[in-house]
Structure formats: C-alpha cells, structure tokens
C-alpha cells in the first residue's frame, strides 16, 4: 500500500506512470496526447474508457481519469472499471516500447536509460 495507512492504492509491476507530454513526445514523437490519446485508445477497442468519456462528457483523458479516481473512492464498481481502463491504456501503450524501435535507439535515450545498441 502507498501513502496513508488506510490507503487503498496498491503499486505493482502493472502500474502505469505517465511522465508528461514533454517526455512522451521526446521519446516517441508519434505518440498521441490528451484528446488524441483518448480517441486512439477508444479506436483500438477501449470500450470501458469510452463509457466514461460519454458519461463524463469530456475528450480530456486527464480530466476523465481524475474524475474516475475521485468517483472510485466511494464506489466499488468504479474501482473495478478503473482496473479495466488501466488494462486498456496499457494495451495501447505496449506499442511504445524501446523494444519496438525500428533501427537504432537514439544516443540520448540509450545513455539516459542505460541501454546499449545491439550491433
């Protein structure tokens, strides 16, 4: 558990950490952000996140996730949906991994992450 002793937040290897738009665009220039990201996840089969996009009347993934987390405090079914949405987001982002690079990993990324080119 993380934070306060009564916290319900568990951190595990499947947790997703979004580092920010600047980092994302620096590493993966073609990665969609915010409105485009929400649309891309839905287009790839994100049915659960689509449900909340409609019910919350927003195209902003950050606002959607923030509101979802607040609503999940008191509602167990929303906590379950949050887990499904995390899986939808994770599935979408699986294409943006260093191992999926075509060609050489740029030197600054290799150096900052401790990676080496296999040559």
Radius of gyration (Å): 17 Å
Rounded mean pLDDT is: 78
Number of strand elements: 0
Query: What is the overall silhouette?
Result: elongated
Q: What is the total number of structural domains?
A: 1
Per DSSP, what share of the residues sits in E-state strands of 2 or more residues?
Answer: under 5%
The parts where pLDDT drops under 50 for at least 5 residues are none
Provide a brief overview of the structure:
This protein has 119 residues and is mainly alpha-helical. The protein is built from six helices and no strands. Helix 4 (61-72) packs antiparallel against helix 5 (76-93).
Q: What is the topological layout?
A:
Blueprint: H1 21-27, H2 34-43, H3 47-56, H4 61-72, H5 76-93, H6 107-113
Structure keywords:
single chain; 119 residues; mainly alpha
Structure description:
Helix 4 (61-72) packs antiparallel against helix 5. The chain has one domain (1-95). The longest helix is centred in the last third of the chain and has 18 residues, at 76-93. It has 6 helices and no strands. By secondary structure, it is mainly alpha-helical. The chain has helices at residues 21-27, 34-43, 47-56, 61-72, 76-93, 107-113.
């Amino acid at each position: 558990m993380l934070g306060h002793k009564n916290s319900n937040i568990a951190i595990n290897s499947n947790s997703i950490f979004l580092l920010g738009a600047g980092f994302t665009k620096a590493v993966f220039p073609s990665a969609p952000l915010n409105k485009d990201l929400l649309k891309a996840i839905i287009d790839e089969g994100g049915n659960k996140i689509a449900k909340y996009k409609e019910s919350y009347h927003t195209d902003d993934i950050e606002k959607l996730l923030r509101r979802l987390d607040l609503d999940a405090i008191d509602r167990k079914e929303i906590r379950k949906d949050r887990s499904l949405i995390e899986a939808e987001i994770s599935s979408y982002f699986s294409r943006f991994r260093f191992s999926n690079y075509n060609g050489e990993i740029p030197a600054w990324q290799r150096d900052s992450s401790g990676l080496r080119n296999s040559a």
